[in-house]
Amino acid sequence: MKVTEHIEKAKKPLFSFEILPPLKGVGIQSIYNTLDPLMEFNPPFINVTYHRSEFIFRKTAEGLFEKKIVRKRPGTAGICAAIMTKYGVDAVPHLICGGFSVDETEDLLIELDFLGINNVLLLRGDKMKSEEVFTAQKDGHKNALALIQQTVQMNKGVYLEEELNNAMPTDFCIGVAGYPEKHYEAPNMNIDLQYLKAKVDAGAHYIVTQMFFNNQKYFDFVKSCRDIGITVPIIPGLKPITTKKQITNLPRIFNVDIPTELIKEFEICNNEEDFKKVGIEWSIKQCKELLNSKIPVIHFYTMSNSASVKKIVQEL
Fold first, then answer.
1. How far is it, in rounded angstroms, from Cα 146 to Cα 187?
2. Phi/psi at 16 (nearest 5 deg)?
3. In angstroms, rounded to a whole number, what is the distance separating the alpha carbons of residues 171 and 118?
4. For 233-283, how does the pLDDT look when each residue is reduced to its tens digit (9 = 90+)?
């Protein structure tokens, strides 16, 4: 079932989860260990992130260094297929621009279609650690808008090889990212919203937000979207803070603010367990306020830590 169909048919609030592929060499059981505790909540869908390749330098036997491309967390498509087979839950793979040519993107979309995966979250993706700015793959997409346009064309049965006759159309439900506190590269919020509208106008069916810790920013974001004509569902994304280092890491990595009130609560914590408790309680308050405003779905950035998310959903 498509994400939008889950939303339309929902008779009670839904909770969805997002996980990371395991590091290369780690088995699929690590994914099941993360998801098993959450399946009692009957998630309508589970997102699986995609991680682009990185350049590393390895020393050769001759004492020289060679540049090598590695992907530390492969397996997104396979994990999605495994989740759907084991749990009977829809999976949403993330697709990114970085590291893919347009032909490789088409091939991956075909594979997903063959696997019966008809939901995708389309993103530009982050720059490599070795880059100052995002650089597209040769013959690849430079931004999410172009990736959406290619997927929409495939939904119409239009492939890169124009001579294909009677090509079978795909049927992907397309999700995109939204930023209640602005994408860090956007010059201002208005420009960021216009770009989001362009993605929706190009064929995106729903939006999932970046994490936020102040619900008012989400409510303001939704209002701004509606004011410029964006009518698709906007799913709030939440992440409970579970460690002290996240207080500085999350704002730096994801360009999000942590409210002063929450910081004050963290300041009186004596240990990591106290930090985790405060983070859980804050997320519960966020969720209750969102649910009171009739939000149909809350999306949790679970990653590899399901214990805190389980406590939050149990409380709800």
1. 20
2. -115, 160
3. 6
4. 999 999 999 899 999 999 999 999 999 999 999 999 999 899 999 999 999
Domain containing 68 equals 3-315
Q: List, in sequence order, every residue forming a beta bridge with 58; answer none if it has no partner.
A: 66
CA distance 233 to 230: 9
List CB contacts of 144: < 8 A, sequence separation 6 or more.
97, 122, 123, 124, 176, 177, 199
CATH number of domain containing 197: 3.20.20.220
Closest CA to 52 of 116, 130, 111, 162: 130
pLDDT tens digits for range 171-224: 999 999 999 999 999 999 999 999 999 999 999 999 999 999 999 999 999 999
**Displacement of CA 13 from its chain's centroid (Å):** 20
Domains in the chain, number? 1
List all residues 6 or more positions away from 173 whose beta carbon is below 8 Å from its beta carbon: 2, 3, 4, 5, 118, 119, 120, 205, 206
Burial 223-237 (b: 16+ CB within 10 A, else e): ebbeeeebebbbbbb
pTM of the model: 0.93
AA letter at 241? I
